[in-house]
Amino acid sequence: MSVQLGMPVPAAGDASAAGAPPPRPAGTPAGLWDRYGRRATDMRLSLTDKCNLRCTYCMPAEGLEWLSKQAVMTAEEIVRIVRIGVDALGVRELRLTGGEPLVRADLIEIISAIRGEHPELPISMTTNGVGLDKKAAALKAAGLTRINVSLDSLHEETFAKLTRRPFLDRVLAGVDAAWAAGLGPVKLNAVLMRGINDAESPDLLAWALGRGYELRFIEQMPLDADHGWTRRNMITAAEIRELLSRDFVLSPDPRERDGAPAERFEVRRRDTLSQDAAGPVLGTVGIIASVTEPFCADCRRTRITAEGKIMSCLFSREEFDLLGLLRQGASDAELAERWQDAMWVKPKAHGMDHTGLGAADFVQPDRSMSAIGG
Ligand SMILES: Nc1nc2c(ncn2[C@@H]2O[C@H](COP(=O)(O)OP(=O)(O)OP(=O)(O)O)[C@@H](O)[C@H]2O)c(=O)[nH]1
Ligand SMILES: C[S@@+](CC[C@H](N)C(=O)[O-])C[C@H]1O[C@@H](n2cnc3c(N)ncnc32)[C@H](O)[C@@H]1O
Ligand code: SF4
Ligand code: SF4
User: Looking at CB atoms within 10 Å, which of 261, 313, 343, 354 has the fewest?
Assistant: First the structure.
């Protein structure tokens, strides 16, 4: 790449106020490159800001004010934006997220239409699993490749405390249905919260390994609508490894990490007498340490919110309007230009020019995780 890396962002001026990023320097290569030499090839698209759970680390108890139907991208608009990403900008994988993607009535049609245009594109979805038992087979038939389900606890009481809804059985049925439908490898996401579900982590891992699911533990990030996150109170990756060492011995997974948020470990059971690893590898576990062991230097993600805004980083405080431009009648080439300009000014890490969630200069974005598209 011949562009100068780490260049300062030109003043956005009126362009930014209008939802347009400043133009990137002439001569930058085609594709979703940023000033730090990273190329986004992993597109995360939010289908809706709505959700039927109220996870404490994400949503407030009363929910949020939902976007109007007109504000949210239609199926046709989504398909067009994906087409531009894949055909013109080098997107190589698509993740559907939200809010809760399963609450979108036209979900199956959206997946079918994208699959029809992109037979080889890996399409995955992150979901809370409520209602998945009834839709898993149709999702597979429509062309969904694989699925990640959020599951923080196997105990009804803890689950209800974390999600503020009594739906554990429905989620478990959803996970099993996804597996049965061929949507594997099924990955499970658990955010650990101090004093609530952290002590359950070895049992949750044993359960996942026993069923062949890949569990990942996630450090809580400051993206909750209640702004209750504190650096001191979050469970760190180091603590997670320590918690798991009660029953298991973890060793680095030799497979390439390849820009993934999760650091993977092979898991063996600990021999209670010798304290050494015993027996065969039972499976793998992932730890997503966004706060204490950030992976921003290798970030390959570009995000489109449910109302069609480009967010270059999960913590971006600036977002740029793609859907508005599309609805004004812009051509595919014009939309691709805006997307590339928006990605060029992607922050180095955590919405800033350095890593540091919880640092003195870190400002939590206005949007919470569900409104961004996690
Ligand atoms: N800091 C940061 N965290 C992210 C980002 N994307 C995902 N995460 C975290 O990773 C968790 C898991 O994300 P998923 O959508 O399930 O999938 P994934 O781990 O990105 O992808 P796969 O392993 O390929 O399935 C999310 O809940 C976030 O907590 C990101 O761009 N930045
Ligand atoms: C925002 S949700 C959207 C998809 C779906 N509703 C779900 O829960 O899987 C995507 C992921 O973000 C994670 N998440 C939400 N808030 C988070 C936070 N504050 N820190 C870390 N992960 C968070 C959830 O656990 C979930 O795995
Ligand atoms: S994490 Fe997912 S399921 Fe939980 S409130 Fe946020 S969007 Fe809903
Ligand atoms: S915080 Fe931003 S730069 Fe870091 S991995 Fe997430 S999206 Fe990428």
Answer: 354
